[in-house]
Fold these 4 entries.
Entry 1:
Amino acid sequence: MLPYVLLAIALMAFASFAVCRQRAVSLADGRLASLHSRPSYHGLYALLWVAIAGFGALILTQLVVSGIVNSLVMSAIVDLAPDMRRIEQELVFSDAVKIATGGLASAVDDLRQTVADTYGSYNTIRVILVSLAGLIGAGAAFYVVWSQIAQGFRARDRAERVLRTALWTAAGIAILTTIGIVLSLIGETLIFFQRIGWNVDDFMFGTTWSPLSGVSAGTLDPEKVGAVPLFVGTMMITIIAMCVAVPIGLFAAIYLADFASKRTRAWAKPLLEVLAGIPTVVYGYFAAITVAPALRDFGASIGLSIASESALAAGVVMGIMIIPFISSLSDDVINAVPQALRDGSYGLGATKAETIRRVVLPAALPGIVSAVLLGTSRAIGETMIVVMAAGQGANMTLNPLDAVTTVTVQIVMLITGDTDAATAAAPAFTLGFTLFCVTLVLNVVALRVVRRYREMYD
Amino acid sequence: MTDVIDFTELSAKHTSQATKRRLRARHWAEVRLKAYGILAIGLAGAALLLLVSTIVTKTTNVVYEYTLALETKIEVSDRDMERINDPNPNIRASLRRPIQDALTDAVPGEVGRRESRQLTSLVSNDAGLFLGDIVKADPSVIGQTIAFDALLDDNLQLYLKGSMGRPDNIGGLGQLISTPGDEEGTYDLEFEWSSFGELFDAIRGQRRFDAGRARAEQRRQQNAVDVTEERILDAATDEERARLQAQLESFRARRDQAEQRADALMRLATVIGEEGLRYQLTEADVSFLIKAGETWFKVTEIERGSATAVIYAPSDETGPWAEGTWNGYLLDRPESTRLVSDRQAVWMEIFEDRGAIGQVLNTRLLNNSDSASAELAGIWGAVVGSFWTMVVTFLLAFPLGVMASIYLEEFAPKNRVTDLIEVNINNLAAVPSIVFGLLGLAIFVSGVPVHLFGYDFTIGGFLPRSSPLAGGAVLALMTLPTIIIAGRASIRAVPPSIRDAALGLGASRLQTATHHVLPLAMPGILTGSIIGMAQALGETAPLLLVGMNSFIQEPPGDPLSPGNVLPTLIYQWNSNSERLFDDKTAAAISVLLVFLIIMNALAVLLRKRFERRW
Amino acid sequence: MTDTTHETTTAKPAPMPPSVESVTVNNETKLRCKDVDVFYGSTQAIKQVSIDIQDKAVTAFIGPSGCGKSTFLRCLNRMNDTIEICNVTGTIELDGGDIYDEDVDPVQLRARVGMVFQKPNPFPKSIYENVSYGPKIHGLAGSKAELDSIVEKSLRRAALWDEVKDRLDQPGTGLSGGQQQRLCIARAVATAPEVLLMDEPCSALDPIATAQVEELIDELRQSYSVVIVTHSMQQAARVSQKTAFFHLGLMLEYDDTGKIFTAPSHEKTQQYITGRFG
């Protein structure tokens, strides 16, 4: 039903465009110049308002009414089965919804059937209410606009104001996203700290990570939420990755910027960019299928025992992934160093290598530092490679040949694991919040540095 | 002090011998730097090459799939008949019985109960359903004998590709004489002993390999013993000491066991093949088969010049067989470590000789959706899921991105708010994708519970879990910054003269932006959007969090049904233990990469075609 | 063609006379250029230029923009090598040795033939590091003390010492334009070159800074052969002893500065210095 209503509102919007345009034309009485705005603008103004009012009323009613319906059905469940635990009641609720909408429920019994019937009847009312709201909203908007149309009506100004507001809203989505991230993360983070009795230091400095063991009645065991093993694992993999990516990326950038001929540049730069375009899940596969076994076999041949899921394998592959970030950003900043500085150095009889080492690199240093920071932030936040190749057990080790786990791996494990969402969400979102804060600081610093640097040579 | 230095003397240094030597070192440093650069690019290239070649080689393993030509009389049980008569096309009958009969007919000799299991596991579960579909389509075949190609099981698929090792023909010298042995079903074989030097080498090699592993085990246990002994000395309480003592004993026992095993294996390795020693081949040894005419023997005991064997595939011939009509076959991995038994290997050899093994293009891989059986799993469901997800992402991110870039470039006043939005967008582009996943999970899927004014509300939570709609919405938020950044850059590249011209003719700023600036900037925005979409197409982590890693056997019909996408399918397949999934994962990756290449090529083309220098 | 006596005298030059009062222009030849052609890809930028540049004198290259004077200047220390498509033919001899000879290392050559550029281009490092850059890479100083004294003497020669002696560790980019250019000259001087090439060294400077730099150039003449490209005829007249006039890639006239500005022998020179084109 609802899709048809949506379609109807859309049709109404287009129809009001035609009607209002026509009304403007007839009001002009053959002298279009007598209108303040061209007829199409009257039509556009009507179209915009009908669409906004129609869809807006529909969505608003939907949100309000479905909230009411859900709470009504929940209270019905509480009445029908007062002894049930809250979590089971919620399960009954979701099953009943599935039964009512023809989905596959986890179980079907009398209680669920009854609730499903209740839900079904409420739902019919909901659909009718929502549809009516949408149609009435659209109709009202049409009437108001239609009656406003006059020769002097500034339809163009008004329509443009509406459109500009829409543009402004679109730009505001970026801010909304950030606010959304912070809000959604912070809520669960607070719940998490509340559950461990505000022992924030246990989370920051504890060395045992097993948040789901010892969960009871809404509290977590503060002894088992120490995130240090995750931090150590994340740092170790990041360091290994940067040890691979920084030298390779930097030397490649230096070569491309100052040594390579145009033809070499023409194929070598895209080659590095291809590395940036490969999805991380492919790198994860590469790490798990090729690199990790190769490292293990190599280790075995020289008498080293390397775990089949090791920090080394994940780190090396992550390093390969980050090479293009370092190289392309460094290449940019090295190229931005003015030729005059290079000439000054050559003019004093410096070789190319000396010029690069003593003049170009120091001049480009801020840019390179920010490239490294952005790369680090990328490595810290990278998920798939570590999920597929670094291991899952939170063991505290500084040995890069062992399996380690990272913040991102634990988030994935907690959310996609078997534990029910309400319990697993708190530690997962807390880790997510930590991750967000750390990468945010790195990004802000890096972007600042880049901005300063650009201003210096622009 | 100033007078100490004479610049003319310094100038003279430029042409001195010492400077010449210094110069050589300086130029050498330059060569080194250049070499590091080349090395760096070489390493990056090598990594890319290795990655691509891994994926290509693994993909080629599944380009073809193997089938077995069978022939059977169609008989249908009552229960199956019911399913066949059901008009619903989704209800399928699995005709296992005719398949089993066909297989039994296909192999020589009697098939016992144990062998029967090995026999039926040759073909995929799908074979019965396949037959059922034939009957459902045309019930008149019931009672008739029909020929069909059955899909082989995943292990056999791998086996036929040679990735598990195939029987290696090591020949045979002189005459092979077979006489019934003392025990029922066994045969004594005689042949020229020098035929099988290679065989004895292989047995010895395997024993030595096992001995090496036993030694390693012994060393590990010894280490445990040492550590525990130390801990006993440090133990604080008697209780603790007793517990450690018990551990120590078990470690010692295991160490001694490993040592004995290693010694025994080494002893064997040195004596195998010696005159007069009859050696029993176990499951932990290499397997040795003899094909004489049409008969296949499996050797159970061997010594110089003679052997005891059982028959895996009988025939009418009883020998003796002249040189050239019989051959030894070596399988150099122990049967216990193989997924294909010796008997199955023999059957495969027979089928191949008979020409019953067919190789067909693996269209199943593209047409099927996910399945628990590796040989049946395909990517179609994930491709459809990816399609819906991309549609949602594009429909949300593109208009919003274009609108936001127009606003920021053409209308936004240069103030702190605009500055904040700008910083914000740049930051969002660098926020880890998994954080977006958490955002999507909280806001779109689960909803954030809020306690306000004594009431419980849930903010958000309006999109179904696992749906392309939820996934697409998350990816749209991720892609938005990319599109806005690209959009702003290309809008900024439109010269102000065009705006001035339009404004000078009395157009409003909005008209100028939409009629003049936007069309000129569109190719650039599209290029940026395609690149953003390509990134989104390869994105995995945030989709895992909104539940797009579910096991989906049907492609989603609309963006609201549960589905998965190619990257999450790749992740799921990769974590599967069946080995054929390794290759199938590579194939799925290849498909994903092909899509990405097409999208990026499109972006490059667009850029080349519409690139304009003002 | 190699004049051996000249080579030996410049390799171990006699100590500088305390002052050179009279503006004599009959010094020894430092750079001898013969039939120099320069091509950028297929376009010829310099055509058949032959010129003898003298030691311990300032030679000015003048001419309208695009006439090739800067290009020619850059040939004298092979700065054009850094441009891939640039091709130089003919011979340029420094003290009798061909600088485009295969055996000649451009790096070593540039140490002997220093260069100062149009726009001041101090490195983004401290003043001290800027000046000590050349001596360090060429290994001119045996000790820290020696390096200090090279830096001091160079800065003194560039008439900058008094202004910066208290802030040697501050970035060179923080100086004013004129100071920056003098820093660049000090930097070039510190490398102890025999010839100093200056490519419009004052074009980015204000008149006061220009006067300081010009004074400096006059000073430097006592120890070096200085070649200066300039746009300003007044400047050429003020600082140089010899002047060469370039036009469309050709060197039309080369003579004592006095003569060029009072009685040029070429019609084009006459037109140029009287401002009929430029």
Entry 2:
Amino acid sequence: MASLKSRRINPDKFHKSQLKFYAILIPVSAFMVLPILFIIFHAFKPIDELFAYPPRFFTTRPTLDNFKRLFTATTESNVPVSRYLFNSIVSTLFTVLFTLWVTASAGYVLSKKNFKGKDTLFTINTLALMFVPVAVSIPRFLVIVKLGLIDNFFAHILPLLAMPVGLFLVKQFIDQIPDSLIEAAKIDGASDYYILMKIIIPLIKPALSTVAILAFQTSWNSIESSAMFINDESLKTFAFYMNTLVSTTGNTVAGQGMAAAASLIMFLPNLILFIILQSRVMDTMMYSGLK
Amino acid sequence: MKVKQKFINRNSHWVLLSPYIILFCLFILIPVISAVVLSFTYFNAVQSPKFIGLKNYISLLTQDTVFMQKVLPNTIKYALIVGPGGYILSFIFAWMLAQIPKIPRTIIAILIYLPSMTSGVMMSTIWSIIFSGNQLGYLNSFLIEIGMITEPIQWLQSPEYLMTIVIIVALWSSMGVGFLAMLAGVLNVNEELYDAAYIDGVSNRFQEIIYVTIPSMKPQMLFGAVMAIVNTFTTSGLGVALSGSNPTPQYAAQLIVNHIEDYGFIRYEMGYAAAASVVLLVIVWIASRFSWSLFGEKD
């Protein structure tokens, strides 16, 4: 029985038999993380190190030159980089907040309320899990035109709010909350809005954190809206600016330094958010099963 | 006032659901339906769409040599390697992570998840520097250093390498939400099941995975599969981003997504592009059905 215990899933402490897993997992995680470390070092390299041959992974004299050049650079239409960054922050913030609100209320209804058509709606949403937005970029563009949202800041936000994966995860998570809790509140005369705000939302923080991360990633990294729905340069986002920067200056070495600095600015918020919320994300994933 | 209040409370489920339903219809349902409708029309974004029946599909399948000889085979090759490949790797890594203690597990899981947080732009920035075509490129300088090559190779402009690079980068970024779901799934398998299985004659780790782990986490396996499919097709535009041109050199890494953009936003043949979109949606749907038949609960 002793040998069986040491083979347990989720062991408490290190055991010799785990070495073989480390022998694979450590090289794999190195392969995953090296390109990212590389871009971090690259962002802090002074110009002569960017030119150095043979190229070196580490930087010996880190500087902020690339960031300075990135922020003093302006596009042809004289829009400063800080403006793109501001647009990204505002649109991402609103996307995350609205997604949470829309998803939490729909998730509560689909999980705890009984009404005709509920199962159909959830089935449609489950089918939509396999929705690939890039496949229908043209009709999405036409919808935006019909709604008159071209050159409107909301074109960054509205298309991202209905997130089938988010609704799915939140609904599954709410399923775990006992009905008796809601019944008790109902007897006390609480309305659905009150139950949602005061009982459900505090209990589903892990699922909401997960949705927040997913919404954040989608919105912060999105170039679709800036490339297709917005013509006004001063309303476009940082991800889009970075895209043009890479395609116009990407081949020059100085451009690579700037692109690396911009990549780092793009990546860090994602990373920090995920590290802070990762244990909540794992809690949510326990209920992610699709039946 | 009171009547209104009563109405809002009695129909609270519709009030709460409506924002999601409206947004879902506008940006998911209507686009999918209009893709199907537009695929039967000639539409150049200036004049209103003209119904032409199955003509787009017929020319897509019979006259578009680029589509049949390059785009479709490329898409199938890419999807078969990145989809199941990335999925199986995610499961293997998730399973191995479950065999080690919590703190190293959390650290390694974060490291493996990191690439999936990078956006398309950032991916192309990172990898185009690594695969840069002059001797300053990291891979070129490394290969020259160890004497494998004498002249730098134009990795991202060479038809023979571009597809492989796209596949490597896509696999690199494929350990996303599905990977995390499967990790949670492996960790939550009831441990008594393993003990029971050993009594029933399971004798090694491989049998344990086949007879205990996978059957008891089927729902997570299915969720992971659907996420893998979506991720595979979402990142499939990478070839254009890496090579910097649409079409990619000699259509080497031209996938359906790029073909749609090429016809839709470069040539403005939107009806034709919509037909290609429908083909893509059908491929996604078939792949999902297949995953469902593997892991879904039979009714």
Entry 3:
Amino acid sequence: MSDLAWFLVGALVKSIIAIVALLTAFAYMTLIERRVIARFQRRVGPNRAGPFGVFQPVADALKMAFKEEILPTRASRLVFLIAPAISVVVALTAFAVVPLGGPTAWGNSSIARAWAPYVADLNVGVLYIFAIASLAVYGIVLAGWSSGNHYSLLGALRSAAQMVSYEVSITLAIAGVLMFAGTLNMVGIVQAQAHQGIWFILAQPLGFLLYGIAAVAEVNRAPFDLPEAEQELVAGYLTEFSGLRWSLFQMAEYINMITASSVVVTLFFGGWTLGSLDGVFGLPFIWYFIKVAVFLFIFIWLRATLPRIRYDQLMRFGWQVLLPLSVLNALVTAAVVAYGLPWWVSGAIGLAILLIVAGAFYATARRSQPKAKRGAGQVMAAPTSVRLVADAPLPRSVDESQTTSVSASAGVK
Amino acid sequence: MSLNIATVAFYVIAIVLVGSSLAVVMLRNIVHAALFLAVVFGAAAGVYVLLNAEFIAIVQVLIYAGAVTILVLFAIMLTQNAMSRTSSPFSGQAWLAAIISVALAAGLIFTVGSSQMALASPNASANLANAINGGGTVARIGQLLYSPFDYSYVLPFEIASVVLLVAIIGAIVIGREE
Amino acid sequence: MVTLNSFLVLGALVFCIGLFGALSKRNAVAILMSIEIMLNAVNITLVAYASAFQSFAGAGHGERLTGQIFAIFIITVAAAEAAVALAMIIAIYRRRSTIDVGQINLMRW
């Protein structure tokens, strides 16, 4: 009984540390993201508050805290107030089983083991993360519904459809890793990689790519940030939120990013393990944080590089490309594991599938490009799914003004 | 020591479960009812953890709270104006339903209370400690569901997957716009 | 003290609450929600029995988790049922613009 009580005390303290760390990480992620995107766009970014702008998050927080919190008259009061809280609580809860280090990170004594750097070492850790992540959609749906306006509701329904669709692929994409590891336990998966001497990305290149794409969609980041597509939906479910409540949604998004990066590192990139250097105090931590930081940078990079995709493209991609490939990956991996073949067989097959799919994509993309491009200089860059009333060539002057206006708006964006 | 953490946890979860089930049934606003449905599913997951069934608990959250309730919310939002807000959510036979339910509850609880089938009690505190210390039943459930050699439920499992496939196709066909 | 009976009583209570909802509500979605509550109550009972059997010496190796396996199958079927039922509700709403089960009485004798 006292074991249980000690466990609860330890979990409580570790949770508080994790929450404080995550919130600090969120604050500085916003600064880093703004600086990095500024570099991408040849700007400087926020650099006024303190050296390199390090006090910018403090300034932002103060600004947010003193903004007016608007409660729309048509809003459903209670739900409107708790929706942002649901988002943040769910995002924080999912992080509980992410291991930042092994059970013996602080040494081998029983006290050191009790304070190992994860809140809980659940037997069903991976499933726990996906179960909690599947609750994240509540925050968005409720926010959209309770705002009492149609743009918000549409954004919420979109996001619900998107997250439910991509959840299926995300779970199937990691099935391969689970088969290789033979456990659902996060610490166990890292130890299985150390034991087999590989990172699972080598055995599961296809699974990694599918998980990565689906994870970006799952945390609603660009290019899958349809729920808040401002050109179509004002700001989607965020339209009516202001001040601290708005920043709670931002908080949830960044914490989800951190969790998704940590899961990638744990499942595919060997977690904290360093081989023979594991015993050096603190080094596995730094190694782990470097890996997570790389994936956070990739999140920012994607946002700076890729345009937002259309809703029908999103759904078609999710159901017609991601899901079949995830099933294929699971089948191939199951066969490799069942017949006891070495890991590189599944890796090679995965890469081959990847090359074939990429080739097919490239070929269809080439074919669907407008013929006029190679002809008289008439550019009708409408996607094939858009049906025009009359497909007549535009006059030269109109065409030019359109082109310039498009490039101008792209520059502003 | 009868009042331990697991006992307290059981009573808290039980009160939340019964209270939110009542809220689902009684509330006039159907979106609020759907939210309490999510609370019901979460509380049931808590009960499963107390019963040393952490896999069922996670599956419960993943499928019921994460998918079924979202589907229900979808249906509610798509059929928003179908029910007027002013009229009663109960049909005329609600009093009969109440009598039947109360009678059934009384009968069931009397039967459970007077049963002579004295099985061993589930040791809730041991189960709770077991679940958080990483012991568990996942591997055994996997063997029971999939093993082609052992005593297993592999045939029912295959039938269940066919049922799911049929349900998917059926839902698409029924829900499609002509 | 929490015993098997506590879980059984809890399951019975929740089941009867769900039963009341399923019998008395007018909105088809609300009826579906009540049925899901009833299925959950049954699952609680089954898992409670499985947990009791785990410490029961007479049970065979496979039988100790039978309750949990049953619960998994019930969850599977309940998910399928929810999908089909909601599709039907949407289809009915599209045709008759109501989901009040009192007014969906075309096939009533």
Entry 4:
Amino acid sequence: MTLDDLTRTSGEWLRGTGPESDIVMCSRIRLARNLADFPFTNRGSRTEKSEIEAHFRSAITSAHLDLVYLDVNLLSPLDRQFLVERQIISRELSGSEGPRGVAISPQENAAIMVNEEDHLRIQYMLSGFRLHEVWDAINTLDDQLEENMAFAFNPALGYLTACPTNVGTGIRVGVMLHLPGLVQTKQIDKVFRALQKINLAVRGLYGEGSQAFGDFYQISYQHTLGKSEQELIRMLTDVVPQVLQYERQARQTLVTERRQHLHDQVSRAYGVLKTAQTISSEETMLLLSSVRMGINLGLIDDLSIATVNELFIQTQPAFLQKLRGSELGVEERNVARASYLRSRLANGRMATGD
Amino acid sequence: MICQRCKNNASVHLTQRVGESRQELHLCLACAQKAGLAVPENPPDLALDAVVQSLIVAHVGELVGELADLSCPDCGIKYMEFRAGGRLGCPQDYRVFSRGLLPVLQRVHGATRHVGKSARQRPGAINRLRLRSQLREAILHENYEEAARIRDELRLKDTNA
């Protein structure tokens, strides 16, 4: 697998399958792990970071894990941005320096960043609301890596991490939700405040500090000390269904009280995406969000959720430039984006390749 | 409750004192913003770095005199550097700086004891961490013979790990 191959496929987490996938785009868990016999990344020398990278690569080979390792140092800025857009690496890993990389599984469910803030940041994603399955998968992966790596751990404080906010389980459990109904009925702030009261964080699609776009929000639990992995997962499996219920009620309100307006909004959005000659990223996100809700409400029937999910990622700047094989300015990207949208929506085809 | 200016649901509730009497105001978000009330449109970003730093300052302020001179023998980080940057230098810092860290952990997580998955114990690891810090020191002082000796020792321990 090379990076160019990735432009022809999409991650499993975009397939729009799995329980509650009309609202839950994907379920995600990450684990922070460090090697016990090295300083944390921010204090590590170049040589030490290279050794960590080598240790990790030999550990995935020994465990026969089906992962492809990409050396981020060797990637162009465009390729790094491409991986950030796909949720495979963080902006921090992309922008830092020194030996570092990421190992990716064939369907992009698993991605392990090396020498990010912690030596290892293991991530696992599945489409739909499937946190228990995600936990089983990432727990196994963690065990397999541990066969050949000594993780920093102490019985009182758990897994030891560079930042004290991650110590303990080192886990972050989260779901990515599409909440256009709550946004349009102006109830979203109320829901956020309620979630924050119970220590759930709300972020945009691209993580910490990034603005929510396309009405996508990540909801995750912040604390890592004093609660077991199962307890944290249960907290989300208890709370998320309530958010889903609010979102469904909001959509129902829109359907019953403003049916014509809603149908008009969805149809116009679809029409613009199918015919525009130049379109910005922001407008695309806004319109795709309406179209996605329209499909789920049965107002559009010739387009799959998987295609729309993919388009959220595949209309981002780096993807378009990889597709064209050259760097593009903002204006050129807007033209390329419109052209790509027209081609994808004209034949309404499904996700290509697996 | 319904907004006093339009028919939407009110989500901003304000009680203000006007002279002797109290006045209640119930508005929807849009009308509240139009009225110039400061209402956050998006949830505030959780800038964790800033949060951690302010917590360190707020909760271990009184210990700073005692902690100021403390540094980790393994990675060399000083407590004050951790205080400034919010990042620790190596796994041993949790032990070295425990007095300064436990109040922060209590505040951040509401707990100071791990519950959940356990890693395997690897007793040799701390030894190797120490050897690596000696290696850095030897290279820093251009003591290459010593550095070579430590590297050999590390290599031996790695194969036995």
